[in-house]
Amino acid sequence: MPARSRKAWAVRVVGATGYIGSRVLTVLLGAGHSVTALVRDPSRVRGEGARLVTGNMRDRGLVRGLAADAEAVIATATPGDATSAEADRDFVGAVLDGLRPGATFVRTGGIWVHGEGDALTEETPLSPPALVAWRAEIDSRALAAPGIRSLLVEPGIVYGHGTGIPALVFGQERVGDPAALQLIGPGTQHWTTVHVDDLAELYLATLTAGAAGDRFLAVGGFNPTVAELGEAAARRLGLDGRVVAEDPAGTVARLGGFGEALLLDQQASGEKARRVLGWKPSRPSLLETFASGEYDPA
Q1: Do residues 16 and 54 touch, judged by C-beta distance below 8 A?
Q2: Residue 278, number of CB atoms within 10 A of its CB
Q3: How far is CA 83 from CA 13, 134, 165, 199, in A?
Q4: Predicted confidence (pLDDT) per residue in 166-208, tens digit
Q5: In a domain? residue 251
Q6: What is the CATH number of the domain that holds 148?
């Protein structure tokens, strides 16, 4: 395992008020790094210690300027809508134009681009659903950028603190008599998962110990089925664990491309990040957080 750099980095974080980025910001500051955060709303920044710049990832001139005087840029932001591909393409172009030779660029991808598989790794051929098909070209372009240390973190389904995609499981419709919780899809599909606080620590490890061109699957090694998650939620909701499968066509009709992605059957261990970076995810599994009541409706 390569030695982790002990230097204090001058880091620019984009997306520092988001679900992932806010935790990344906290971890970076806690590790003693100098952080400038590009944010749309400074009032939403949690904690103190970062220099704040008001703006957004679509401002090419601002992004280029921030990158130009940075040792590293960490990007966790995405619009999360139909503009995501164009926004990310423009943003990556601006960062690459601005970064000096030898600087570092850590981007956020996603495990969905690897398609289905029961033992996914960073080398698994890409087979993305339509929702994220645009990522492949941008990821490749950034990782191959000459003269900089470019890396990619690919999270599974992120959970923790009662929010993220897993909260949808509790919001599913109740059907039948006695009532049962409708699953997202048939329930046989596995979801790769990672706790948001473990994920934030992986960004720090990637910054300080990753090599140019590295991509890391950010998964904790727990791959529950949607049925297991639904049953755990149904117990918390007083339904005695009763669940009902949903026809995949119905899932796609209801949720569109997002539903197609949630139907992927994915399992992964995240072994590379542990071996190469010394990453040690330690938070409770998603099933454990469900059982603890963390996701119970208010």
Answers
A1: no
A2: 13
A3: 21, 11, 20, 25
A4: 999 999 999 999 999 999 999 999 999 999 999 999 999 999 9
A5: no
A6: 3.40.50.720
Using CB atoms within 10 A of its CB, is residue 171 exposed (0-12), middle (13-18) or buried (19+)?
Answer: exposed
DSSP-based three-state secondary structure for 182: strand
Name residue 173's amino acid: E
121: its two tokens: 């790794």
User: Within a domain: residue 252?
Assistant: no
DSSP state of 227: H
**Percent of the chain predicted with pLDDT > 90:** 92
CB 101 within 8 A of CB 252: no
Interval 285-296 mean pLDDT: 98
| Alpha-carbon gap, residue 99 to 14, rounded angstroms | 14
The pTM assigned to this predicted structure is 0.95
Strand partners, 104: 72, 149
Could you give the CA distance from residue 116 to residue 178 in angstroms, rounded to a whole number? 34
Between strands 34-39 and 51-54, the pairing is parallel
* Residues spanned by the domain of 272: 10-159+193-219+267-282
CB atoms within 10 A of CB 53: 17
Cβ(195)–Cβ(282) below 8 Å: no
Tally of structural domains, the chain: 1
Structure tokens at 183: 């699953």
Q: Decide if 152 is inside a domain.
A: yes
Say if residues 139 and 107 touch (Cβ distance below 8 Å): yes
**235 in a structural domain:** no
Q: Which two tokens stand for residue 199?
A: 């994920």
Question: Are the C-beta atoms of 50 and 37 separated by less than 8 Å?
Answer: yes
The β-bridge relationship of strands 149-155 and 157-159 is unpaired
Amino acid at 209: A
Q: Which of 7, 55, 48 is nearest to 25 (CA)?
A: 48
